[in-house]
From TrEMBL:
<dbReference type="InterPro" id="IPR011066">
    <property type="entry name" value="MscS_channel_C_sf"/>
</dbReference>
<protein>
    <submittedName>
        <fullName>Mechanosensitive ion channel protein MscS</fullName>
    </submittedName>
</protein>
<dbReference type="InterPro" id="IPR023408">
    <property type="entry name" value="MscS_beta-dom_sf"/>
</dbReference>
<dbReference type="InterPro" id="IPR011014">
    <property type="entry name" value="MscS_channel_TM-2"/>
</dbReference>
<dbReference type="InterPro" id="IPR049278">
    <property type="entry name" value="MS_channel_C"/>
</dbReference>
<dbReference type="Pfam" id="PF21082">
    <property type="entry name" value="MS_channel_3rd"/>
</dbReference>
<dbReference type="GO" id="GO:0008381">
    <property type="term" value="F:mechanosensitive monoatomic ion channel activity"/>
</dbReference>
<dbReference type="InterPro" id="IPR049142">
    <property type="entry name" value="MS_channel_1st"/>
</dbReference>
<dbReference type="Pfam" id="PF21088">
    <property type="entry name" value="MS_channel_1st"/>
</dbReference>
<dbReference type="Pfam" id="PF00924">
    <property type="entry name" value="MS_channel_2nd"/>
</dbReference>
<keyword id="KW-0812">Transmembrane</keyword>
<feature type="transmembrane region" description="Helical">
    <location>
        <begin position="62"/>
        <end position="80"/>
    </location>
</feature>
<dbReference type="InterPro" id="IPR010920">
    <property type="entry name" value="LSM_dom_sf"/>
</dbReference>
<keyword id="KW-1133">Transmembrane helix</keyword>
<feature type="domain" description="Mechanosensitive ion channel MscS">
    <location>
        <begin position="108"/>
        <end position="174"/>
    </location>
</feature>
<keyword id="KW-0472">Membrane</keyword>
<keyword id="KW-1003">Cell membrane</keyword>
Length: 276
């Protein structure tokens, strides 16, 4: 027993008055192992149900992220204590240094605080479709400093969390699983208004991603300088790929307008030449 204790107290190397002993390394490995096991158990408990929808999965992921960060912070503090570093004294002695670091990393800390706001408020969750600075992005992961998203070109985008919390962001997934969209079109004066509205609504009905026929509506919006201005309103669940849906409906509109001899308007000017 004494020989085992001697092995644990054996010094691996020293720096000044501080020495790294075998039992310190053993404690460090034990803390890391226990942290991994605790996180594995927590994750299994939170994600034990398989029949959860995307919104609930995002909520569970947010809770897990918060628990994960708290556990790792506690584990890091225990590691420092096991190595003989007094955390309270370290924080008190380095207060001035921490202030300087805080000023230099102000934006980083801003992103970190924003990350905790996103994880705790849960107004934005994994799987939500956001419009950030005119870019449509589907959130894949919310981290402490940055969030990972996928744009409509299937390119991964890393977003600083402060960009989401401090700017105007449209969350297309926040209220319902379907959203209303608009398509604007202008036709030549003299066209049959009722026929145009009927063709617009039929064009939307042909697309499989249009949600509800009764909620699809064509409207005459105004009288432009060169056109009768119409708007097609429709609901769709395919929020992330709505650009492709709109493109398909516009193609159907063009085909049906051509079949019915309806001209899509374009700017026209009459030039009168005056003879001297």
């Amino acid at each position: 027993m004494e020989s085992f204790q001697e092995i644990l107290d054996q010094v691996l190397f020293s720096i000044g008055t501080w020495s790294l002993k075998v039992h310190m390394v053993a404690m460090l490995l034990f803390i890391l192992l226990m942290t991994r096991i605790i996180l594995w158990i927590v994750k299994k408990m939170l994600f034990r149900r398989s029949n959860v929808d995307e919104h609930e999965k995002g909520n569970i992921q947010a809770v897990y992220q918060i628990i994960r960060y708290v556990i790792w912070i506690a584990a890091f503090a225990l590691i420092l204590e096991s190595l003989g570093v007094k955390v309270t004294l370290l924080l008190a002695g380095s207060a001035a240094l921490l202030v300087g670091i805080g000023l230099g990393l102000q934006q980083t800390f801003n992103d970190i605080i924003s990350g905790f706001i996103l994880l705790t408020e849960r107004t934005i969750k994994v799987g939500d479709v956001l419009e950030v600075e005119d870019n449509v992005i589907k959130i894949q992961k919310i981290g402490v400093r940055t969030s990972l998203g996928l744009n409509t070109d299937d390119i991964s985008v890393i977003i600083p969390n402060s960009l989401i919390t401090t700017n105007k962001v449209i969350n297309w997934s926040h209220q319902n699983d379907k959203t209303r969209f608009r398509i604007d079109v202008g036709v030549a004066y003299g066209s049959d208004v009722d026929q145009v509205i009927q063709i617009m609504e039929e064009s939307a009905f042909e697309h499989p991603d249009v949600y509800d026929r009764e909620l699809t509506e064509g409207r005459l919006m105004g009288f432009g300088s060169s056109s009768l201005d119409f708007q097609l309103l429709f609901f769709s669940k395919n929020i992330f790929r709505i650009g492709s849906v709109k493109s398909d409906i516009r193609r159907i509109l063009v085909r049906k307008f051509n079949e019915n001899n309806i001209v899509i308007a374009f700017p026209q000017l009459d030039v009168h030449l005056k003879k001297e």
